[in-house]
Each structure stands twice: as structure tokens, then as C-alpha cells.
Amino acid sequence: MKEITVLSGKGGTGKTSITAALASIAGKAVFCDNDVDAADLHLIFQPDIQEVFPFSSGTKASINSMECTNCGICMDHCRFDAIDYNNEGTLVIDPYQCEGCRLCERVCPEEAISAVENTNNQWFVSTSRFGDFVHAEMGPGEENSGKLVSQIRKKAMEIAKNTQSDYIINDGPPGIGCATISSISGSNAVLVIIEPTISGFNDAQRLVELIRLFNIPTYAVINKYDINLTMTKNIEEYLIFENIDLLAKIPFDVEMVKSMTLGKTIIEYNPTSIISGQIQEIWNKIKVSQDVVLQ
Amino acid sequence: MSYKIAIASGKGGTGKTTVSVNLFKGFNELRGKKVQLVDCDVEEPNDALFFCDAEVVDVQEVSQMVPVIDSEKCTFCRKCVEYCEFNAIVVLPPVPFAEINPSLCHSCGACSVACEDGAITEHPKPIGTLNFYKTDENNGLVEGKLKIGSTMQTMLIRELKKAIPGINDIIIYDAPPGTSCPVVETIHDVNYLILVAEPTLFGLHDLKLMVALVRELGLEFGVVINKVGLGDNAIYDYLDKERIEVLGKIPFDKEYASLYAVGEITGIIPDAIHQSYTEILDVLNQKITHHEGNNRIKW
């Protein structure tokens, strides 16, 4: 079984649209939405939720004002600037700054501080027309998305083993921070979706540098390649230099946007379109080269 | 006091950077006031790409303090393990073995407080840089750039916001995508928040997530709809129903997208797009004047 993660560095390059299209043709596979911050794949999958799990992203400190003497020891120890005096001169915690390290609780001489668990996140095991699907919903402003990504990937792996699936396909988050690192780690291959813009190219290069730290086979797709042909050419040269297989150059086509608006993949919307053919080609190439790796 | 505006969006690629850079340049021209652009998308900072003549004037390295255990002094009492909420410390008394995993460490300092044997010392580990650019006589851009492989993006944003140079009339924060901690770190203390959304299925869904966050934070906000003409009308119905202020609608233009691709977004702006920015700047200027008026009364 092979785990393939779709990433991009820059947001909005087409990760989810392409992941959904691959889902239409991937056969026996489990799907996992690793973009837990702003999950969108479920809008296309329209999953039937089978199981719901709470996820604790850690704790937040809370000061009991009845016991607090406003001595400020906690504030001096907090390295996240999460404790300060309010207008009335009382110490308060800013829950959005608090990282839940609980040091304030331990140093408080009055034992006035307690930790409150965050359970404002949940994740789901679902079925869908494409196969089993693991996805999550984070509460607004929550932290530790990396930990949540690891959690749902573990579940996807378990399901894939139980159902003897051939592939797990992860729709990854943008960026190169903790959620992306959690998403790459342990994958068998990464598919990078690059948009031919100065920022799309720049972000893809930072992402490739990150993937190199994990030494994972990497493939690329240039999406909306005709937005700027010069930039596309620069990216092609870069990919050759980096020895990354360019699997397809997908044109900008409003059909792609239309299909998404209707909640359909491009393959479902128009199976004979040029892009649908390219998606099939991308999948075949990944399959073949992953089989070579296997042998 | 500076008037702080953040540009955010749940979804990536909706146009945060384009809007941020255009507003920054618009404020420069309109007001003759001191404006600072702050690129808080530290994982993938791109604002500087759109200033071909910007000059780097300073680079500062930012480090997190990572603790190290001296096994000569360590008595293997495991109190640090008990204090660490991030499971970053392994202490095995029978071996004896004591080590801290820096990639799990949040640099909270709890282990240093826990240790009674003086066995823990903290050492700087670089997490990224703050890059200061001069864009013209008065104004500047500062960006945070996360070191590749670091997971400390929120800490870097916090340090970036502390390091904004000079006394500014207006500060513009270009936020990272998403709705989690790095976004909150960027937007939590602003006077006004602009959400850039696109009229697509994903764009609307992620806008709703952002609206939930922003309402919880109690921030004043409005929406700029970008790429108008793509997608469908669902977003307009939603904004109408929720009575959310729409600051402007920027039409989708494939030719402009092509110019954006090579970093030219402020030179040759199509009339319709230019008109949208003028309207957005007008609304923001009214808000800033109102804010300054309020400050004067308080004074």
C-alpha cells in the first residue's frame, strides 16, 4: 500500500480539485483531508459520516479570580505573552495566546490557575462514492493542527490495512509549517501542484526544500500553466534541475471551477475533457513509478 | 497609535497578497502618511516579490530557546518529564538516559523551572529571520521567513509583530491562510480586518469558517470579493443574509492574472480593478479618519 500526499506551498493552486479528480479514478483507495484548518474536500465527497471522534488540541489556562492575589508570578513565567493585567488590574489569560504549557499553573503560589481541556475539534470516519474518507473539523482559532493531521492519517492507515486498499491519498495543507510537516512525514510520494506565478513558484521551491529533508519521491503538476508561459518555462527548467518528474501541464479552464461549483470532480463533470485525460495520465504515471519503487 | 489592518482569508490563493500590496501602495499615494506592510505569512512570505526595487536594510535572526540536559548533573528524577506538556523529554533512570527532542519543544521553560539540579540549560535554535525592506523614502516592508523544517511559525509571527520599525500611521498585516493559531496571532489585535474571499464553493465555505473565528474574536471586519465572475452567486446571498460589510468587488481578469504571475500587479491595472481599489481605499480612509477622531477626543 502506498500513501501519496498532494501539496503546493502556496494556497489556491488546485490541490483539492486535483485530489478530488484523482479520487474518481484511484480505485481501491482511502482518502484523507490533511488540510484540517480549512478543509474543503468533503464539499466534493459529500461523505456519509459513520463515526465522530473528539480531538483535544491541549489545554488552556484559566485563573480563578477569587483565589488570585494578582502577584504576577505567572505573568513573569509565561513566554507566550498570554497573561496580563486587565483594565481593573486583575490578571487574565488570553486564551488565543495560551499554548497550554501549564507552567503558570505550577508556579502559582495560590493554586489559582487550572487547565481547561480544548475539545473544540472533531474528526470523522466516513464513507463516500469514492471510498472511505477520514476528515476533520477544527474549532476556530485552535492550535496543534499538526497533531490532528497525524491522528487522522493514523486512522486512514488503519482503514487502508483493514480493507486491503492499494492507496491512501492525502489532500495536504498549504504552507511549510507544522501541519505540512505532519502531512509529509511517512508518505511514500508527494505530488506538488505548482501555479505558474512568481509566488506559486517561490512557495513550491521552499516546499521542495522541505520535502528533501524527508527524502521522499516527488512529482509535480503545473496547474493553470497558460496563465503565464514564461513562468511555466522557468518552472519546467527548475524541475529538470531538481530531477522532479513533471507529470502534466493543466490549462486554466473555467470548466474546472464549474465542476467544483456543482460539487463534482472534473472527471464526473466532463469525462472526455482534456483535463480529465490529463488526470488519468497523472495517475497512471504515479502508479507505474510507485510500482517500480515497490519492486 | 497606528491603525492596524489585517488581510486574511481561510482559503489560500484568494488574493491576500495582491490586496495587501495594492492597499499599501494606495495608502502611500493617497495620504502621505507613514505606512508599514508586514508579511505575516512566514511559511511562504511573498510580499517582497512585488517590490522589484525594494532594498533589504536589515536582517535579524529569530531563535527559540531549546533546553539541553546535562546528564552529569541530572539525577534522573523525571520532574521535567512530568512538567513537559508536549512530550518532548525522555528520561530513563535505569539506563540512565535523559534527552530533549527539540522538534517537539515549545520553548515554554517549564523544564527549567522543574529541574532542581541545575541540569537544564537553554540554548538558541534559529527558527527564521525578520527581513526589513525599504520600499521608498518613508515606508517599508518587513517579513518573517520561517526556517525550512521549523514548526515555530506562531512564535516567529509574534516576534515579527514586536519588531515593526518606527512610528507608523497605518500598519497592514498580510496574514497566512487557514483559521488556526498563526492566523489568530496575526489578527487578534487589529483595528480592522479584511477577509478576501472568492465566489467559489471552497471560497464560500472557508469564508464562513473565518467569519466564525472573527466573530468569536469580536473584531470589526469586512469582505473583499476577488475574482468576481468566476463561480456562482451563493457568496453574495450569504453576505447579504449575514449583513456583512462588502468593501469591494474585484473582477476576475485573465490578463491581470498573467501580469500578477510575473510580479507586476501595481503597474498596469485594468480600469475596473483600479476602480475597485479606489472604492476600498475610500472606505478604509473613512474608518481611519473616524479612528483618529476618536483618539483625539480621548486625548
TrEMBL record, chain A:
Pfam families: CbiA (PF01656), Fer4 (PF00037). The keyword Cell inner membrane does not apply. Residues 59-88, 89-118 form the 4Fe-4S ferredoxin-type domain. CDD domains: SIMIBI_bact_arch (cd03110). Keywords: Iron, Iron-sulfur, Metal-binding. It comes from the Bacteria. This is P-loop NTPase. It comes from Maribacter aquimaris.
UniProtKB/TrEMBL annotation, chain B:
The keyword Metal-binding applies. CDD domains: SIMIBI_bact_arch (cd03110). This is P-loop NTPase. It comes from the Bacteria. It comes from Maribacter aquimaris. The keyword Iron applies. Gene3D superfamilies: 3.30.70.20, P-loop containing nucleotide triphosphate hydrolases (3.40.50.300). Keywords: Iron, Iron-sulfur, Metal-binding. Residues 65-94, 96-125 form the 4Fe-4S ferredoxin-type domain. InterPro entries: 4Fe4S_Fe-S-bd, 4Fe4S_Fe_S_CS, CobQ/CobB/MinD/ParA_Nub-bd_dom, P-loop_NTPase.
